[in-house]
């Protein structure tokens, strides 16, 4: 009951055998245990049309609703942006982030992503060779060490497989785009019992097509009646800027109007902004509370959010092989090799360029495309050059090829000593490499500015117009092609444990386990070219290879206090080189006073060690332009430009070697009931408090919160003015979150039919967060957020029915609504059509499976049966990917047909 109560889908009934369950190092009968473990079988994965571990985690209600997947994560903006993990996806139990979720394969660690070094890439897991997935919804630092604050996801491979089978899966959308294909081959020889050996191997090839925003009507960033419109004047048909020494001067006035304006576009003056696809009149009323709008009244805007790629084209190959050899009835050894390669083509919108006189990029007087606005603007001076803001579509989409390679090799032994003590020992080496190449849309900054200054390139091409061949050749001459950056992680691990019954108490035998975990971890990251030389290239500081050593010992005991009461005690001590040592205990109980009633609970401490990048990433020295305000200094020196309008401010960002580990205190308390045959229900309350949260803070945030972050604002001792700001990774205050997991299951048989109905849901009561010590904790549940959306309620529910060769599955996924982002922070009021709530999202999938053909399994399914569009949200892509919709909550593919054919040769 302790395992089955919250399960989405369970394996078929097995003989009562002792196994190791995620969250413990002691083998016991599978149905025992004090911890909430959800198990998802491979059969359920296949019938649900799931083709990747990322899709699988979307079915787990305890997983966060955040930017940790390929659709939303690779484009997220702001302080938490991660542009080094393209092609990767991560787990985030309880919404605590990938670093706080431990991902295991057969109970052992994998190497972290080579691009960011922050967590295990889910896409490296060979899903076709998986037997089941166990999700521990509780902290487990006392067993596994760091990363396990939010919980543990344990992928368990098939073992002792015999035969040869091939399968293929096609999943195509009704509206087009995003086609998914998967081809798998699984084979195994040898019987451990009769032959004494078994060798299993699996290889999978996946090919996913691109899905663009232009292929979905709901991806529309221009809906001003609902409070959504692009906040940019970087348009394919350039907007002309004002500036000293330029054609528009420092500002202009229109006839009969005393207001001074700061931008102009010929198409806006003509009322024709929408003559160019994706462009519209700038919706000034949404983006300022000043009337009339001096900057944008005569400007066009561009729906760049509607020009995004929703999901990138991906090609992936994964393989795993396992050889197991039985020495005798009590000992066996095995070798396991895992490898994967993911190739992703990431695309962003074209460069947005603002030209200036200083860079020599202004459009010259006498150029063939010089745009004279004198007939509209009397003060326009056609004897001076033009500066402008331009979405440089002729340069092409900014395109990056990302290659991720992951591997793990393991040699291990396990068995029984003296007939009663279980042991296991293993030596593994794992690693990950990431490479990013720029293949289009990027160019050298100085060459681009020089080319624009020639006047040969036309920034004012209308619909149906294009650049001349001379201009196209000039654009090509500015481009950069080649390696931008690369990173690599490695991990060498020696682990071992021994467990068994050690002595008897009146209520039963006491079982104990002791273990050791020794690891060497490395991470290195390098920019292969100076990103500052390439316009808008994603730059990251070099991190020469860093190495750390982890030495850990742990112990665990299962104590039968009473006949119906069992207590789990665990403690682990980890010692990190350069960081220090930490000890984390855990206590859990399982009390079953009646056959139909079970109580369970746990209390523990946890920790999360800072990552290599957080500690050691190189410091980058940069500048903040555009009149920065020193709020503290300006209040003391009103009107002094050295405090109130700083023209440029230096700041540093990058790693922080003084970071402390995050620490947590957490607990669960649950009940499982089986009031009548074939029905069970579980409720598990959980709470997590975290201190010293590690966050990446921008200099703007530091300046805005100067009251709390004085230590990061460095002032000149003589004048009191700001010398520079220390930004980057810091230990913030913390968070407090709590909620309830709900599990329902009903199964049975009637007139030859077998059926099962299952629900796995999570109610998040609270998620309070404070960025800095001294700042009050702020509630985040059901509120728009730029990183994670903490939804009040999420669930997955399924109904399966089977008879003979037929089975069917109906799956529902539900995400509750939340308060929307307020346009322009509410400064402009609320448009009449603005809905302050993002509506809930509910999606149905259905599939049917037939096994009546010899050695053949055929599954046909429809995902998103009702073709439900993502709910509207008024946010734009400046902070979260998706214009008018949110990829963290909803699936953009629409209705899709999946087809899976599996044939077993022998």
What fraction, in percent, of the residue positions are helical? under 10%
Query: Whole-number radius of gyration?
Result: 30 Å
Number of strands: 46
Largest sheet: 22 strands, antiparallel, barrel
Task: Quote the average pLDDT.
Answer: 89
Tally of DSSP helical segments: 12
Poorly predicted parts: 1-16, 72-81
The CATH architecture term is: Beta Barrel
The CATH topology assignment is: Maltoporin, Chain A
Q: Cα distance, first to last residue?
A: 36 Å
Q: How much of the sequence is in beta strands? A: over 45%
**Overall tally of structural domains:** 1
The class by helix and strand makeup works out as: mainly beta
Please state the overall shape, judged from the principal axes of the Cα atoms.
globular
CATH homologous superfamily annotation: TonB-dependent receptor, beta-barrel domain
Protein name: TonB-dependent receptor
Pfam families: Plug, TonB_dep_Rec_b-barrel
Subcellular location: Cell outer membrane
Main location: membrane
